[in-house]
Amino acid sequence: EGHVGSLVDDSGWFYKPLQDGARGEREIEFYQQFWSDERVPDEIKEFFPKFRGSVLVDTANSPTPTNILCYFDQPCIIDIKMGFQTWYPEAGEAYRKKCEIKDRESTTGTLGIRVSGMQVYDPSTRFKWKADRNWCRKLDNHGVEYAIRRFVSTNPFDDENPNALLASKVYEAAKMELEKLTSWFEKQTFYHFFSSSVLIIYEDHGAASKVSVKLVDFAHVTYDHDTIDENYLAALKSLTSVLSMSP
């Protein structure tokens, strides 16, 4: 209905349609600045989708980050919105109030993170269990801990007893990646991230399991501050702590 949707070309590049107006323009601005910024270490840039400029696809201007799922066959993905505050300082009053209500009524206000999406592959049925938006919205602090367990379970369709068999394997690798990000956020003052997400992606292949951590959603990044991004840094530490509690 008037939207192009996301496309993956034959080379594995992911075309993400921009949101209309200023939000889309801000996301392109971030990609252009970030990937040309020599102050950002290469090992940190690996956490961000690569950028090839913007193209015109069926009249929708789209940034073209790397397809971050191209190395996975049946990826399990959890989308975690980061920060105790999701509204950016320049936001209008209506948007700010909307975010304040959502932050206050969700685990954003208590944990600094909230689960906004999740899918888990069940190897026994070869189906994917997906958490819909309403399911995610109902999660309180204990619910987030439950979601974190269910995400690393080989029986994701079992509501009562998700087994969390992959917790150690997946989350130890994810925490190592989060520690790299945390070390950078403890020093950098170039970017402050609002309403951005961390994706944890994995695929279980026994001893050869793949685990990846990526940052996405950059329409509300602000630039060149004199202080570190305490909001995002606190969220990273909170996420690491929550992952550590998973059995």
Describe the model.
It catalyses: 1D-myo-inositol 1,4,5-trisphosphate + 2 ATP = 1D-myo-inositol 1,3,4,5,6-pentakisphosphate + 2 ADP + 2 H(+); 1D-myo-inositol 1,3,4,6-tetrakisphosphate + ATP = 1D-myo-inositol 1,3,4,5,6-pentakisphosphate + ADP + H(+). Belongs to the inositol phosphokinase (IPK) family. GO terms for molecular function: ATP binding; inositol tetrakisphosphate kinase activity; inositol-1,3,4,6-tetrakisphosphate 5-kinase activity; inositol-1,4,5-trisphosphate 3-kinase activity. Keywords: ATP-binding, Kinase, Nucleotide-binding, Transferase. The structure is a single chain. This protein is α+β, with helices and mostly antiparallel strands. The chain folds into two domains: 7-65, no CATH class; 76-245, Inositol polyphosphate kinase (D-amino Acid Aminotransferase, Chain A, domain 1), CATH 3.30.470. It has helices at residues 22-35, 42-45, 93-104, 108-111, 133-137, 141-151, 167-185, 230-245, and strands at residues 7-8, 14-15, 51-57, 60-65, 76-82, 113-122, 127-131, 191-192, 197-203, 210-216, 222-223. The strands form four sheets. It has a five-stranded antiparallel sheet with strand order 7-6-5-9-10. A hairpin with a 5-residue loop joins β1 and β2. α7 runs antiparallel to α8 (230-245). It is globular.
